[in-house]
Amino acid sequence: xxxxxxxxxxxxxxxxxxxxxxxxxxxxxxxxxxxxxxxxxxxxxxxxxxxxxxxxxxxxxxxxxxxxxxxxxxxxxxxxxxxxxxxxxxxxxxxxxxxxxxxxxxxxxxxxxxxxxxxxxxxxxxxxxxxxxxxxxxxxxxxxxxxxxxxxxxxxxxxxxxxxxxxxxxxxxxxxxxxxxxxxxxxxxxxxxxxxxxxxxxxxxxxxxxxxxxxxxxxxxxxxxxxxxxxxxxxxxxxxxxxxxxxxxxxxxxxxxxxxxxxxxxxxxxxxxxxxxxxxxxxx
Length: 284
Ligand SMILES: [Zn+2]
Ligand SMILES: [Zn+2]
What we know:
Mean pLDDT: 91
CATH architecture of the largest domain: 3-Layer(aba) Sandwich
Number of strands: 12
Bound molecules: zinc ion
Strand content: 25-35%
Helix content: 25-40%
């Protein structure tokens, strides 16, 4: 059987509920409908902001995956559908290079009927994540010049009040005037990271959705079940110079969600030896 047929048999023509209220369906639905042959539905009663937002007005619930799972399960219970898809973004300093902004997008699919769960992700430093303490409107304008405004929205705030989704100079000035009336003069401005206000972020939500589809399209080499994915990465690629093991990956281990079949694929990066630069013996 061809891969497309396997996938069509698995998901074909079923309704999938997409747990979003930030217009993520614009980039997610076309991919999901084309490749998984599901019909995507966005429930209108869903308020995903109760599960945590980036603007600190509601605390994030659990970690990133738990938050996505929670949204998906909530959407399932609202709609009675058996497939749910949810996405969740994470922003902060890069784990290895803390002065660089970092965005990890995660897309989760749960299929209750097949007891199937899979996660797609994308990671990038291409993000306009920024915030700044400001004193006056000129500071705000200068900030906006650096963050892709007005295509990307901003938020202005003090400790008591915030105005989100600002996408024009006029709105920015009005928002600032409103804040000036308050006793709290501790102003700051930040980028609005909600998907529909942040086209850069939207690109990586699309990439995470594509990653989810690619993982589903990977079939078990024994039983052809979808979602044959990497469960472990083995270190120990040999150094080209001295032949000793390096910390680089030598093999990816795949495991089937259905039959449990495991397979090692050697040299996932296409290199059969490590550069001596990565060797603890040659380059201590
Ligand atoms: Zn299998
Ligand atoms: Zn070496």
